[in-house]
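Subject: Sanity check before I submit

Could someone independently write out the structure tokens for this chain? I want to compare against mine line by line before I put it in a report. The sequence has 184 residues.
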Amino acid sequence: MSERETYTVEIAGLTRHFPLFEVAPGVRIAIFNMLGDTYIVKAAAAVLAEKLKDIEAGVLVTAEAKSIPLIYEMSVLMGLPYIVLRKSYKSYMGDAISAETVSITTGKSQTLYLDEKDIALISSHPVILIDDVISTGSTLQGMEKVIMAARGKVAQVAAVFTEGSADWSHVIALGNLPVFIDQP
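---
Independent answer below. Compare away.
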């Protein structure tokens, strides 16, 4: 088995080597998976929390699953509750609010669900959306739709990384990952 090519980044004072995976013919991305990397989670959460300290917000919101440890740590540091938008409906979620999205890593349509119990935390409150990587913006748009449907307001968007050459100037991020296009 050959060794997978990687892309090296420095984030929040730590160096990591992200494996490159093909997500479409001739298109590769560096995969950032913070699950299990406590050092990256804690360091990135601390830097993001500092960058967001002056944003008025009542709650932090993310989509399931890779950014759950990040939002938990940010919640502790910022003294704000957090909500995880689920990717599958459970009966205990009651009259949930939902929105559809397509993830670059799965390439499939997914639905984000806001548990009925969490609607009051969002309704008429400023929200900070948190993600690990914002690539196409599809998940972000799905999260924004859910927040609007719950009568909340997005105060800020933050991520560890943005990806690609889109205009991500409205996102507080710690870095940008390139998209690798193979030349014929």
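---
OP: Matches mine. For the report I'm noting this point. DSSP finds four helices and eleven strands in the chain.
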